[in-house]
Fold:
Amino acid sequence: MRWPKEVELKEVGPRDGLQNEPGWVNTPEKVAWINMLSNTGIKEIEYSSFVHPKWIPALKDAREVGRQINRNPDVTYSALVPNQKGLEHALEAGIDRASVFMSASETHNLKNINKSIDETLPIMKQVIQDAKAADKKVTAYVSTVFDCPFEGKTDVNQVLRVAEALFEYGADDISLGDTIGSAVPNQIEEVLDVVNQYYANKDIIMHFHDTRGMAIANIVTSMNYGMTRFDTSIGGLGGCPYAPGAAGNVATNDVLYLMDNLGIETGIDEDELLKAAFYIQNKLGKSLPSRSLTYELSQMSEGIDADVLAQKHRRKRDMMYDFLKYQYDIFKKMAQ
Ligand code: HMG
Ligand code: MG
Structure:
């Protein structure tokens, strides 16, 4: 197997991760967290979602978040946009890239965005064209590419039909979603065989939820098919509110471990990523599912070797210091 030299991970935790959280993370906390993510070396962050707040209350402050984050010029800031109203709000708040979305399966599309596929396509066309007219890049997500929680296995022709239309409307790239985290490598092969045949020169991103722990195997399979762009969520945070039982995206921490150890460049600094993971884990008051993150945490309390332990403790102390300083800075700003 030949591995790529580098891959690009898009951080979707602030959107795909938080959208499914029952707990409220307040705006200054979201902003501080996204600012931390901006310092990790990650090249794209999907920072929120401009959908109806009634549907996704956890992200009802998307406009404030967009206005308040510190923008690192090396990072592309994207946000989820379902329609023209969402795009209007996203442009006001500031985006480099609009992420439009629809499903390959009829029932998931209807449950997720309240419209049939035929009703959705003209909306996608308009939103993509308006985003392009505003000089923004567009990623188009296609959900339920492999399986639908309501209809079972998705016919690859449904995926092609939707992808064909989205590319024709002007999408720069398409993210193929295993929305419920059910696919296994032979399903990835079946779909990518066809996708590579039709879209050999197009930019394809893979978006794996990790419900059954298959995402890493699916990423390895995808790299074998030439894929080098993956959506990941810090700590494995998240799920899809309209796909019952689905877990979060594959954890950025786990994918980073994989890539680092395969010698594949990501540009991401593990320590900075850990800080951001601890921060949000603390705010949510629960452990995130990432195995690598859990391991790192365990190393901070029980050492294998005194030197390693001392080093880990120093790192933990530094992280605590940074974390407290972030909070202090936020409070100071708020008090002004
Ligand atoms: P709708 O109710 O059909 O919308 O919802 P409508 O066009 O009929 O409008 C109804 C009302 O909503 C109107 O207000 C609109 O102005 C308002 P009223 O006149 O009644 O006062 N409205 C909006 N308000 C704020 N922002 C907007 C907006 N649009 C309309 N953008 C809609 C349609 C798409 C808005 C709704 O179904 C919705 O918000 N759905 C969101 C679903 C969602 O966020 N799902 C999770 C994200 S997708 C995902 O996770 C999958 C992905 O990760 C890939 C994968 O894993 O496969 C991307
Ligand atoms: Mg998703």
